[in-house]
From TrEMBL:
The keyword Ribosomal protein does not apply. InterPro entries: Bac_surfAg_D15, BamA/TamA_POTRA, D15-like, POTRA. It is found in: Membrane. Gene3D superfamilies: membrane protein fhac, membrane protein fhac: a member of the omp85/tpsb transporter family. The keyword Ribosomal protein does not apply. Its main location: membrane. Keywords: Membrane, Transmembrane, Transmembrane beta strand. This is Outer membrane protein assembly factor. It holds the Pfam family Omp85. Residues 211-285 form the POTRA domain.
Length: 611
């Protein structure tokens, strides 16, 4: 007999060229191979897929199990799992027959030995039987009076077991939403009548007393102030009990970034005063962090960013972040690159648990085609959460800028009061499939050097609509507009405050800030108003890969109201690759109305959807 070729070797404990089958066999004690014959007994594609996906012997086909007894245990488990899958499809009269080594599963001894020279044959035969429908449905106890149809239980409809389970769970959820923290099911019974092929259901619940929130404790903190944790959670003794409020409180604490886990545990009984005590259990994560990032486009070159931060500076989740970036690498000479640096500070709960104080100091040197500017900006402000979806912010800003543009060299010292309102109902900030985000802001400003008052106003709305149960197809749209009112001449407004379009964030296919009014020398001026719109079709090809055809349209005008005399559009297609931290994005676009001597196409790469 010739020896089998070696497919792996080991040096100093490290294995090389080892295939998955060898690794799996080495990990299994007393490996037993098997062959499987699975007859789902149906032509219904959905039911057949459910049976096959449930059977672990099917999913692990080709992999050995541990011993003859291990094979029998896995076969018994599969029989139970397939029966459960049949119940989920309302097949309560189904029969699953399993043989191992030619013997019926129920006739095997406690310690079977098959003594097979080769793989042990396993046969699973399924007789699904007919689909049952709901018969009589009764809610009793504190569930009485509720409409079963509101819980998915409709007489005559297919009686999937999952509907019965979910109905019982929802009854308890609804009772707890009424402020009854001790609500529980007392009965959830389903009786199948094989003669009529119907299922009668009885669901009973006990709501328990209405109770307010009691004493709220905090555990697990090390460097974070526990009093701050309780205050920022907005869970206070005496307030009505609400599961939704508890869920939102946990999410709110997680967004601080200082905790690796947050759990709110409720007591299993009421306190003597009739309230429900609870404890916020947290586990602190690493407070210091650093990182780097990058993005690329053929029109703007390569951009690199670096940052360092602290998430708990003084013990109440205050954050400090130092960041710097350099961009347009490869697109411009080293002396004309863009640079920026900044210090950002944030204190959550500064003026109440719904408020956050923000301050920043930033400096930048930018040299796009429209202008060259050195700017330093100091800003401070407060944002307040009006609700789970609505936020308003206001503050003050001082910006000094030294600008060289189509109007020559000018210096500006500008005071501004930025005010913004945002409503955000998106289901996912990084990769939304439902909801919308609407923003409107105003920035009254005074330019000291010229004694000029002017104000900018901008608004934008993005919307998302998914189709299909798996939400593999999403239509996304964005509409934005802005205007600047005041200032006798366009030169009275700093170039960094004028409007430009073009590039990865606005109209793809054009260069950065390429869409702009121009003077007789074809110099970019920037505008007082703009309108931009984007439409995307986000199509999931697989669980991780998607394609995105898109079109962007925009116009910029020197008037306070857009004149739409020069409308530019770019179209293209993108590729998305899903990761745990958001989709990786690669877009390619071309301008549909190219400027003479302008950009012919754009390639953009980054993390997250384009909007």
């Amino acid at each position: 007999m010739s020896a089998a070729p070696a497919s792996a070797f080991e040096i100093f404990g490290m294995k090389f060229f080892e295939n998955d089958d060898e690794e799996a066999a080495a990990a299994v004690i007393d490996p037993v191979n098997y062959t499987l014959t699975l007859d789902p007994g149906t032509d219904d594609a959905d039911l057949k897929e459910a049976i096959e996906n449930t059977a672990r012997l099917k999913q692990d086909e080709g992999k050995p199990v541990s011993g003859d007894l291990g094979l029998v245990i896995k076969a018994r488990d599969d029989r139970d799992r397939i029966l459960a899958a049949l119940y989920e499809k309302a097949r309560y009269g189904g029969v699953v027959t399993v043989t191992v080594g030619g013997q019926d599963l129920d006739s095997l001894p406690p310690n079977p030995e098959f003594n097979q020279r080769g793989a042990v044959p396993v046969t699973i035969s399924v007789e699904p039987g007919p689909a049952f429908t709901f018969g009589e449905i009764a809610f009793s106890g504190d569930a009485e009076g509720r409409n079963p149809a509101d819980y998915g239980l409709v007489p005559g409809a297919r009686a999937d077991s999952t509907l019965i389970l979910k109905a019982g769970e929802k009854v308890v959820v609804d009772l707890k939403a009424e402020g009854r923290p001790l609500a529980r099911l007392t009965e959830r019974n389903a009786t199948a009548d094989h003669k009529t092929q119907t299922v009668d259901v009885v669901i009973a619940a006990e709501g328990g007393p209405v109770a307010p929130v009691g004493e709220v404790g905090v555990s697990g903190t090390k460097t974070v102030d526990p009093a701050f944790v309780q205050r920022y959670s907005r869970i206070n003794a005496g307030q009505p009990y609400s599961p939704e409020a508890l869920t939102k409180a946990a999410e709110r604490l997680r967004t601080l970034g200082v905790f690796s886990s947050v759990t709110i545990r409720e007591a299993d009984k009421l306190a003597p005063d009739g309230s429900l005590p609870m404890t916020i259990e947290v586990s602190e994560g690493k407070h210091r962090y650093f990182g780097v990032g990058a993005q690329y486009s053929n029109t703007d070159g390569l951009g690199l960013q670096g940052y360092w931060g602290h998430r708990n500076l003084f013990g109440q989740a205050e954050s400090l972040r130092l960041e710097g970036s350099v961009s347009r690498i490869g697109e411009s000479d080293i002396g004309n690159l863009d640079y920026s640096a900044g210090i950002l500070f944030s204190k959550p709960g500064a003026f109440g648990p719904a408020s956050t104080f923000n301050a920043s100091l930033k400096a930048s040197i930018v040299d796009p085609d429209a202008y060259k500017a050195f700017t330093t900006t100091a800003a401070a402000g407060v944002s307040i959460e009006l609700s789970d979806t609505d936020t308003v912010s206001a503050g003050g800003e001082v910006m000094w800028s030294d600008v060289e543009d189509a109007f020559g060299k000018n210096k500006y010292l500008t005071l501004a009061i930025p005010i913004e309102y945002v409503r955000d109902t998106r289901d996912d900030k990084l990769n939304p499939t439902e909801g919308y985000r609407a923003m409107i802001n105003a920035k009254p400003s005074y330019e000291i050097e010229r004694g000029t008052f002017f104000s900018s106003f901008e608004g934008a709305i993005t919307g998302y609509q998914a189709f299909g149960e798996e939400k593999r197809f999403v239509l996304a749209g964005k509409l934005a507009a802005g205007t600047i009112i005041g200032g006798d001449d366009l030169s009275d407004i700093p170039a960094t405050r004028r409007f430009f379009l073009g590039g990865g964030g606005t109209v793809r296919g054009y260069g950065y800030q390429e869409i702009s009014p121009r003077d007789g020398r074809n110099k970019l001026l920037g505008g007082r108003s703009y309108v931009a719109a984007t439409a995307e079709a986000r199509i999931g090809v697989t669980e991780t890969i998607g394609v995105v055809p898109f079109i962007d349209v925009g116009t910029v005008s020197t008037d306070e109201v857009p004149d739409f005399k020069d409308i530019r559009a770019g179209a293209g297609i993108g590729l998305r690759y899903a990761t745990p931290f958001g989709p990786l994005r690669l877009d390619v676009a071309v301008p549909l109305k190219k400027y003479p001597g302008g950009t012919s196409f754009g390639v953009y790469a980054g993390i997250g959807q384009s909007f």
